[in-house]
Specification:
The complex is a heterodimer of chains A (about 270) and B (about 425). Chain A is built from 3 helices and 13 strands, in the order H-H-E-E-E-E-E-E-H-E-E-E-E-E-E-E. Chain A is mainly β and about 270 residues long. In chain A, strand 4 and strand 5 form a beta hairpin. The mean pLDDT of chain A is about 90. Helices cover about 5% and strands about 50% of the residues of chain B. The two termini of chain B are about 35 Å apart. The radius of gyration of chain B is 22 Å and the shape is globular. Classes of the chains: A mainly beta (about 270), B mainly beta (about 425). At the A-B interface, strand 6 of A face strand 12 of B.
Chain lengths: ~270, ~425
């Protein structure tokens, strides 16, 4: 009887292991890393659309600040990357400039820029991912939508930060135009939210650290950080992004992400 | 010398200004934005014509008032423009760049009023761009445009964007006055007998298809680009009268975008202005992004221009007694019959958005070259400063630029944005 009981316990344990792939011992670190990224992505599916306002504070090594203000709209696209539109409010000389991006899971993004002084919509090259966004410490690739397919992954282990359990994994950009050789990402285990990202440059030296703060939950499901801090360790410069007026399910459609819509961007 | 037809325009302008003034009092500061420019130009060479100034100072303002209601599905945009110029009385001018009501519906949009529209893909010349008249008195590059009264209906079906334009009022091109630089050595007269009573029509289809952005357009109406008829008055003084023919112009524009490359071509076929002719402009723009991890971008540009009209410029004896009957047809002063543009752009992508742009256009037949260089950067959050140099070299006598051979200049522009 004793033996029977042991076999049953073992059987139940095995079933649990099979049902919960994250604890499966047969998994490689690469598989587990991918799985965490997929789970994090999965938990953000179905958000439909979002809009928000963003204040960007650029700081140089001496602590001098410059302010940028922009508005974002994002539309979830089933089976492909998101569509997004950014409208610039400040500095005033670029006010009304609008940037439209169709992200793709694979291949280059499609991007258009609207220049209000000329009333011109211009398709622009999207291969310059590693360049700075508006003179900030964020590169274009840091602010574009995080598609699972853009990286390969490797699970590094569990790590406690301030007593909270996190997954720690490495991700390696698939695109050779990326400015990074790798990134180290921490997700909290409870909600699979990114908490911290370390960026390593082409020489594999630590370049920047991004931290996410003040997470709020929307529509009982989707978590959004209200503040992001990017510090460049090599230059001493930093950038803070503060989000406000975050709204979900505004009823946005493809219509709001047409090239023609840039002409009315306000 | 203004035709009576200008009166309704000025009346409308005055009305709009009044409206802007009234609105300014009642709306919050957030809806009122704009810019004020202080411009100074220095011409190292004395002008060809006595009375032309060696330096110039100028101030311009372009406030913009924006109001929306109905969740932004309806709005009013009013952008007047005014310049006061010390050196050239014709450069002191007022315009309504924009004053339109916009309505946005699910599959269409409607704009009614003064508006500016841009068509095309190339950088050094805008062949296809035909809706707005050039405000040439602003700058010789022709990039500044006058507001065009129009009804613009935009339809957004699944197969692209279709814009239809009905334009009831024609705007004549502006030209520098007698004391201004960068002008012909004879006055541009305005013929009061010329009437522009027709309603101009235009339409354009635009659609991105994979890596291609494609636009096809047609314009039927009064040509924005004038031809010139020489006129010798009783005192044997020669002047040029701009002639605005009724034209049909079909335009095609294609841009292919891949990697760091933008390949561009735009072309027009125009009839109604002498013999039917075609023009084409095409080339590339290649950008090296984030060069050596500095964050800076370097762009290289090359564009070739061809115009089947060729060079029919025949003013050769610039003699005041130049006999008028020699020219039966008005003359076209198009100067891009076989020209090559080469340019480069450097954007530092720093906090101040420091940028440099330089280039030149070479006439492949005569060698006539025009060169330019621009540098700009932001100062603080609300100011920008830019320096520009524009010059002409190796100018052939038969080139329209020949009249500008002493008009190379430096420009300092300080702009305040609010």
């Amino acid at each position: 009887m004793h033996l029977y009981k042991s076999v049953r316990v073992l059987f139940i344990a095995l079933v649990f292991a099979a049902l919960n792939p994250l604890t499966s011992s047969a998994q490689t670190p690469e598989e587990k890393g991918l799985e965490i990224a997929q789970e994090a992505d999965q938990r953000d599916l179905g958000f439909g659309d979002t809009s928000s306002q963003m204040t960007m504070t650029l700081r140089n090594r001496q602590g001098q600040e410059s302010i940028r203000k922009i508005r974002n709209q994002t539309l979830e696209v089933e089976g492909d990357g998101d569509k997004s539109k950014i409208i610039f409010d400040e500095p005033r000389d670029v006010q009304g400039t609008a940037f439209l991006n169709y992200t793709h899971k694979s291949g280059p993004d499609d991007q258009w820029l609207y220049m209000p002084a000329l009333k011109r919509v211009k398709r622009i090259a999207s291969n310059n991912k590693s360049g700075p966004f508006m003179g900030s410490e964020f590169a274009f690739e840091d602010i574009s939508s995080d598609e699972v397919e853009k990286y390969t992954y490797k699970y590094l282990g569990d790590e406690d930060i301030d007593g909270v359990a996190h997954f720690k994994l490495e991700r390696f950009p698939v695109d050779s135009k990326s400015g990074y050789t790798k990134q180290v990402v921490w997700y909290d285990q409870a909600e699979y939210r990114p908490i911290k990202v370390e960026y390593y440059d082409r020489k594999e030296a630590l370049l920047k650290t991004l931290t996410y703060h003040e997470y709020n939950q929307y529509v009982d499901k989707y978590w959004r950080a209200h503040r992001m801090e990017m510090i460049n360790h090599q230059t001493g410069k930093s950038t803070t992004l503060e989000f406000s007026d975050i709204k979900f399910q505004n009823g946005l459609t493809d219509r709001e992400f047409e090239q023609a819509s840039l002409r009315n961007a306000r | 010398m203004r035709s009576p037809l200008h009166r309704p325009f000025y009346f409308l302008s005055a009305l709009c200004t009044l409206y802007v003034a009234l609105c300014t009092l009642s709306v919050s500061a957030q809806d009122l934005t704009g810019r004020i420019d202080l411009e100074s130009r220095l011409f190292p060479n004395s002008g060809l014509i006595p009375g032309q100034h060696g330096s110039n100072a100028s101030i311009s303002a372009e406030p913009e008032l924006y109001l929306d209601w109905n969740d932004g599905y309806q709005s009013l945009t009013i952008t007047p423009f005014a310049r006061f110029d010390l050196g050239d009385s014709r450069r002191t001018h007022f315009d309504i760049r924009e004053a339109y009501w916009l309505m946005i519906a699910n599959t269409w949009e409607l704009k009614v009023g003064f508006n500016k529209v841009f068509w095309g893909v190339t950088e050094s010349q805008h062949l296809v761009d035909v809706i707005n008249q050039t405000d040439l008195v602003e700058a010789p590059d022709g990039e500044d445009k006058l507001g065009q009264p129009m009804i613009q209906w935009t339809w957004l079906p699944a197969f692209g964007t279709i814009d239809v334009f009905v334009m009831p009022l024609f705007r004549e091109r502006t030209f520098p006055g007698s004391e201004g630089r960068l002008r012909f050595p004879f006055p541009i007269a305005v013929d009061p007998t010329i009437r522009h009573e027709r309603i101009d029509l235009a339409a354009r289809w635009f659609q991105p298809i994979s890596i291609f952005d494609i636009g096809v357009s047609h314009f039927w109406g009064t040509s924005r680009e004038p031809r010139f008829a020489p006129l010798v008055d009783d005192n044997n003084e020669l002047s040029l009268i701009p002639v605005y023919d009724t034209i049909n112009q079909t335009g095609l524009e294609i841009q292919a975008t891949f990697g760091g490359w933008l390949l561009k071509v735009e072309s027009i076929l125009r009839s109604g202005q002498g013999d039917t002719f075609g023009s084409i402009a095409g080339g590339f723009e290649y950008t090296f992004g984030n060069v050596a991890n500095s964050g800076a971008d370097i762009g290289l540009l090359a564009e070739y221009h061809y115009d089947s009209r060729g060079s029919d410029f025949e003013f050769a004896p610039l003699d005041p007694t130049f006999p008028t009957p020699l020219v039966n047809e008005p003359i076209s002063l198009s100067s891009f019959e076989n020209d090559l543009f080469l340019g480069s752009r450097l954007a530092l992508n720093d906090v101040q958005s420091t940028a440099f742009l330089g280039g030149g256009i070479i006439d492949m037949d005569s060698g006539t070259t025009s060169l330019f260089a621009e540098a700009s950067r932001r100062i603080g959050n609300q100011w920008t400063i830019s320096l520009e140099a524009r010059g002409f070299t190796n100018i052939d006598e038969a080139d329209p630029f020949y009249f500008f051979r002493k008009d190379s200049y430096f420009e300092l522009l300080i702009s305040y944005f609010y």
